[in-house]
Amino acid sequence: MALENNLNYFANQEHYKNYCLKNLRDRYSINDVPERIKDVFINIYNLSIDDKNKERLIELDFWVPACYLTYRVLYKQYKSQEDLFLEITKTINLFQELIVCKITEEEIEKHIFKLPKRHSSVDYDFIKYSHLVDNEFCTTIPEEAKDVIRGKSGIYKLYDKKRTLIYIGKSINLPDRIPSSARERGAYYFSVFVCDNIAHMNILEPYLIAIFEPKLNSEHKTTDKPLFEIPIPSESVIFKLLK
Fold it and tell me: Which residue, 79, 182, 194, 239, is most buried by CB atoms nearer than 10 A?
């Protein structure tokens, strides 16, 4: 099942937002996303998991708004960054008006753009709001780790309570990304491979995922192992995240 068709893949609104931002970076090389666009991702996620809205969307046989937005971001080509941001903003306005019955399906298709019917694989078993905040999660980087990752980019590994590897990710700003990624996935420990070269980092992430097969990574997993080796930077010690 494609991620954009399954909201249950996302642990919470931050996870969904970061997934969208990651695709903006990878697909369009957009690193500086305006706050108003980040807010759209949060708002459309919340709109999608509201039970009242769910009934209306099922009645209309439409896609979950958050799923539709990621579909547009991932698979449609845009002439400019401004066109892409306009599309993102227009999408949430569209669904907000649709849900409160201010516009009809016919008006949408005539005046804005044709809204596809929901895909059969869309999962309507929505995540509840109680999942959005879990104070048990540890998301503070310890002082001894800050000196290692300050201003650095690279690969990070996340581990559960038993120090079992659960996820591998990458970031051009490790201090900013690790806490939010740990919260999204319920991690308690992390380690890093600091990379001085962005191209090396981008190649290294899928390579390490293919080797270690962390359970929370869905992309880059294979039934076999790479037949070649690439240079791997030294891995840090495993640090414990603090509350």
Answer: 182
Per-residue DSSP letter, 165: E
Following DSSP, what letter does each residue of 115-139 receive, concatenated? PPBPPTT----PPPGGGS--TTS--
Residue 45 lies in a domain: yes
Nearest-angstrom CA–CA distance, 20 and 30? 11
What would the mean pLDDT of 5-32 be, rounded to a whole number?
A: 74
| pLDDT one-digit tens code per residue, 205-224 | 999 999 999 988 878 878 88
Residues 99 and 147 both lie in one domain: no
Determine the structural domain holding residue 72 and report its residue range: 3-123
**Shortest CA distance to 170 belongs to which of 120, 121, 220, 122?**
220
DSSP 62: B
Does 225 map to a domain?
A: yes
Q: How many CB atoms lie under 10 A from the CB of residue 58? A: 13
Euclidean distance between CA atoms 93 and 35, whole angstroms: 17
Q: What is the DSSP letter of 140?
A: B
Give the three-state DSSP class for 66. helix
